[in-house]
Amino acid sequence: MDPSAVHNDIYVRLARRSLESFILEGRKISWEEVRDELLAQETDKKAAEEGLCGRRAGAFVSIHEYGMLRGCIGTIGPVCDSLAKEIIENAISASTRDPRFDPIEAPELDKLKISVDVLGDTEDIDSEEQLDVKRYGVIVTKGYRRGLLLPNLDGVDTIAQQVSIAKQKAGLRADEEGCMLQRFEVVRHY
Known about the structure:
By secondary structure, the protein is of the alpha+beta class. It has helices at 10-25, 31-39, 45-53, 83-96, 159-169, and strands at residues 59-65, 68-74, 112-119, 123-125, 137-142, 145-149, 180-184, 186-189. A hairpin with a 2-residue loop joins strand 5 and strand 6 (145-149). Helix 1 packs across helix 2 (31-39) and helix 1 crosses helix 4 (83-96). The two termini are 15 Å apart.
């Protein structure tokens, strides 16, 4: 286990516990089995549990090893019946099912840095001028194609870069016109 994980907030601890259990034991944990362990470190246990179990939201789990992306999977909107379950599912997927990377293996676990982005509601926008790469993530849609890029990412410094990468993720050309744009804010947990 990453020695700094003790200082991470409950969202990140849940993601880490999820992927460790899956990688080391081949099983998916449930919120109920780790609830007491994770809440023990919280000063406001009620607020922490309400934040994870009392609401639904899309969430992305990002995993880095030695500063390089090692996996990132998420959901734009809620798929599970609680944010806790959303994080559990996405942590497992980010660590073992991101098609860009080989599955994470046990010897890597102590080298991983994990973050959890909880997505706010999406908002349709009329133009790129309504974006801010530090504040808003972007979703680009054209027909059935859709690409998303989270906000405040290293190396993404301009709106043009942000939109271009989101278009690429959607399988669209950077100069593709007629795309619908949406923005959203996130709360990033380290």
